[in-house]
Structure prediction request, 290 residues.
Amino acid sequence: MVRNSVAIQTGDDPLTAKMSFYWGRDADGSPASFFPEEGDEWYWTGGSLRLDEGPLITFLHRTRPTPGVGLGFANAGYALALIKNPDQPPTAWKPVIIKARQSEFDAVPATAIVRDGEYVVGLALKQQGVHAAALVRYLASALAEGNIDHPQWWSGPESGWVEEQQLGPSGPALIMDDAGAECSVHWDHRTQSFLHIATYGFGAATIGVRSAPSLTGPWSDPLEVYRPPESDNPRPFVYAAIAHPELRGSDPADLLVTYATNSFEFGDLFTQYGSQHLYWPRVIKLKIDQ
Prediction:
């Protein structure tokens, strides 16, 4: 399987929208990752944002194999993909990939990102143990040039935002005790608060919502709002709940959320059931009010 791909959706209503898929090609024409591997490392995509300054940015999680250990892979840092012509079809994109230097502490940007004034703020998740979350921010103008050399980290209300070199091995402040391995953050105009959407649990999972008056918190405890029925499968693997406020439902109160379904047995994807029910986008509608 390719390690990553790109999909472009036309239309903001999932019931009628169309989606086109894109991936890379090896020299012999066989399918390859859209963001190509480098040696034995590959990329998984994190938060993405079209900047007002023009380009599309995508944070990439560098991943390396760990045969026989854990799930068989581990984080190796992060990078930024800069796409200067996002209005063109992905077949015309020529992403520039900028690798970030490795931090001394365990917090890797950026699973989810949001624009906040002149900055882009991202969730940086711990990779060891539970995925607790810290905050990192970059000047949007710097990201538009592919510059990720000067991140600032939230160090708590007393110190505020500080340069990375001011942090010791203990790292930045943690704003959530568990943000999920993949998640989203956005400003919700109905609640006048930031909402964080994630799956909770490993294998069988539920979808939960947190809220906060500002990105720095305080964040509420997660409110579990939906248990995907796929969590009751014999070998469940439900993950990656992400909100899409840019999509619309039939009711103004609708918040559309996607999640992923997979199996811990790779061969399950190629059974009759798996080909019809696993690894397809799932969309639910949450009712959000004040």
